[in-house]
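INSTRUCTION: Work out how this chain folds

Token vocabulary: learned, describes local backbone geometry

RECORD BEGINS BELOW THIS LINE
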Amino acid sequence: MPTDSFFPSTRFAAAERRAGLAGRTAETRALELAYSAVLDRQQTHTVTVVGATGVGKTRLVRDFLVKLREGSEGAPRVYRGSAREGGPAYEVFARVLRARFGILEGMAPEAAKAQVRAQLARVLDDRKVGDVAYFLGQLLELSFQDSPLIKAVEGDAAQMRSMRRAIIKSFIDTDAGKAKEPLVLLFDDLQWAHDDSLELLSYLVDSLRGPTLILCLARPEMLARHDGWRRAGGARHSQIDLSPLSDGDAAITMRDLLSPCGDGPEVDDLVDSAVTMAGGNPALLEQMVRIYHDTGVLEVTDDFEDERWSVHTEKLVGVKVPLTVQDAVQARIAALATEERTLLERAAAMGGVFWLGGLVAIHRQAESPPDVWEGGEADDVMTIRAMLVELVDRDYVLRLPDSTFPGDEEYVFKHNLEREALVKLTPPAAARRHHRAIAECLSFRESADTSEEYLEMLARHRERAGAIALAAASYVEAGEEARSRNANAKAAELLAKGLALLDQCDPADEDLRLKTLHRYGDVLHVLGRNEEAHQAFDELATRSWRLDLRSIGAIAHSRIGRIYRDTGRLDEASRQLTAALALFGQSQDETGTADALDDIGRLHWLRGDYALALEYTARALSMRRKVGDPLSIASSLNSLGLVQQDSGSLTSALESFEQALRIRKESGDLVGAGSTLNSLGAVARDMGQDDKALAYFQEAYATAKDVGFRNRTALILTNLAAMQHRRGDVEKGAALLKQAEDTADEGGDKLALADVRTGLGRAFLERGDLAKARESVERAVALFAAAGSRAQQGVALRLLGEIAAASSNGAGADAAPLAEAAGLVKQSMGIFEAMGNDLELARSCRAYAALLRRMPDHPSNPDAAAEAAMLAGRADDIFAKMRATTASIAPGAFP
């Protein structure tokens, strides 16, 4: 949508007349202050305007922006997008971006892509244009070539989502900083926006820093859906609650609307009646003026240049003045001729947007074809177009300048409430016929084969036409399209609809059902909806068992095993992953077998059984080398290095990480390279090679920053801060810690944020700042608990115990801090005991025994002394067992 399409023209037709803005002085001032804050401070500010239907949200903002544009030499750039009910996941962002890049509906894809590339090059000075174009193209439904970076992370939905958010944020900030005036982004009708759009918008409200004014317009139900919306952005986010007009302001508005009538007692009667009936709703006042025109109470008597209306009070007797907006809508529908109403009922079946071609297809379902289909435009097409022209003139519909479908004409309902009423008035049998004709028409449109939006539209019309099996297939295809764009919430919604319809089919397409269950479970797992994902994979396992499909059963068990592993239920995870390994082997699926081996290796690593972890990880690496996928090989090498590092074999870990780094750099996997560089830094630090460690961390930071991977950047910054503390540069370390905290807050990945909080807590503990250490680690514990990451929660609890114990002065001191510390460490012991994580259990046992021995009453408390000795002995036994099992691969490990 072009920038200026939001601004009104200088004249309106009689039926489209708009009143001047009245009674909104305080609200307009609030918008002006927000814009001034952006201009003066050169930082982002957000304003959310909330109000009921018709109360004037869009009008308030439009008049503010018109005033801003007319009163400033350098007018701001304004880009608007509006959401629609049931629209694609990122539709509102797509519309804003189309406005930003000047992409019109119907523009050839290659021309649109060339326009995007050229403008990106100007904004970014030719830096990283490819990666930015790829992610913006996902929202614009334009396919740009992916880069080595994109290829490296495209299988990891979480990394792709994080990168997409960071890159979009970086582009908007850079774009805003290029102009003298602030950038204005307007998001309208957010009550219809999909959760994916609102999640991305909330992230931008929180994280944008450039001179940008974000205007969000929504009905109150949007705030009910997203309770935390108002907290996004903190002090840089304000809210305007738009109330109905007072009677005085409503009278001013109505007189403005009726100004072509002049003055007189008959006008006073119309104003008084309207103010009484409208209840302060500006849209209802405008709707009543339209009704007066439709019923002949008002009549245009002079030409357009000198517009005058005459009032026929005698016709008021037959007019029922509406009491509500809904009454006004019914009155407008009643003013339609029979053929006009039939046409609009058919259009309403298509949705808020409809096409001439669809109306022709519905019309011809009950018509007999001609003897010969001659060339040229048929009479029925011209008749339908003429009716649409009349309905445009009467303010029922609007023709759009371009059509999504080449060669067709695209229209939109001016007032969505009228469309909803027409849908309710359409008989069910007629509605099914309309939907069947629309579905048949859509199935031959090229866009329906490639776009998530039109695949969903096709599915919806097939469902309403009763073609359940075809509708299910279309919903699944739309879900796959959404998943390919990492719109996971939308993908889950569409795939769920497909599965629900497949349950209604008898017989159903079982192959499609199994594939859909697999994809649906994967998407739910990415979204963190683990219980629902578990149910999907359980059903997949059951159905594959009944059909003796072992490879699919293996996938189901492997996915269930990952869910158990990620939530700390390691025994259950072991059963599932072992079953998956066996089934993959029986199916002779080498890729699946390698994945299962790697999964089991990670499971043993979590348990602290490093001998088995090394064995399984090495087997996975061997198989992946046989398959020959470099990135998979690098992933296995990185996993192997982590196991070797934790088992104390630092030299071997160093070799594995160096091999992984070489492959990742050669493959262009910069995200993976940054991760491995961070691991190399940790190994060098543990080996006492501080200068080398610092160099690795600095290179890792530069790499992560270069690709915009903020969560990884935050973790690396924490490591860099720790190195500066070890080198004695406390001031620089503190600055890095603050930067890490800010970066993690903006990143959005809760587990990554919790990891950073843990690192910050340890650094604060080393500095002796116990208050900040406690605050940081307590927040990490809460985040780990919420995410179900039990192992990390246990480690954080043990660290919290260390912090509590550090406030004690030793023997003879108040026992309260030590008692608290013992309680925290005991909680960690319980977690590791339940998980079967022997290594971490041994570490917690040793820490708990040490705390018991520090208690003031330890010398006189034989029970406490016995418990301390027992726990210390248990830890020694576990470490001795691990030394024995890893002696050949990690000599000197586990002191």
In short: The chain has a mean pLDDT of 83. The beta strands are 45-50, 77-82, 183-188, 212-218, 237-241, 298-300, 309-311, 353-355, 397-399, 410-413. The radius of gyration is 33 Å. Residues 862-886 form the longest helix (25 residues).
